[in-house]
Amino acid sequence: MTDLVRTAHDRGISTLTLDSPGNRNALSAALVGGLADALTACGKDRDVRAVVLTHTGTTFCAGADLRDPPPPEALVGLLRQIVELSRPVVARVTGHVRAGGLGLLGACDIAAASTAATFAFTEVRIGVAPAVISLPLLPRTDPRALTRHYLTGERFDAPEAVRTGLLTAAGDDVDQVLEPMLDGLRRAAPQALAETKRLLTATVLQTFDRDAADLTALSARLFSSPQAREGMTAFLERRDPQWVV
Question: pTM for this one?
């Protein structure tokens, strides 16, 4: 659909590939817009049974692009679009996922990764909070595990991501892991898939309805704060921010 999001179709499955290696598939305004357009096209195509979201390079998504961040409202819209899409959306991850990229995983209906993948909620380390991405994540993940990872920003592996509910499954070969799932989606009736997804996402969408405005405002406030400016500057300069002791 765009230079940043490539689309392919095979036997009822449309694959959307994030292809912005220059910034490790970070969520720039352009990438968010391109992915939203590609999802809209999938939702209108009767031949699309399900959508696979994957990536080029060694990083699925590095989080928000600090040089060209999307407005919080745009990210909320993208996450909700994934949740509301009448087709199941499946994340296929063979690389690293950070910060806002984890929101994409949380919004997807199924998420699988290779055991080489790593994960981290790095927001607290640059002076912000995982606010907007909490909309799909909090209803779907283990609260105690998420508390640790939100507060510390530690890196964790694919088995831990499965345990927390961030991933559906993981294995050395992610395509072998996904093969029976995609076969199941191809065998399912389109109407049945849409209505079953509607049942499964009802609680997530209630969270969007209740909390989206507050979390969008929180994200905007934190990103404009002095601590966030210091944290983002330190990140871009590859140094520790001033508060590290």
Answer: 0.96
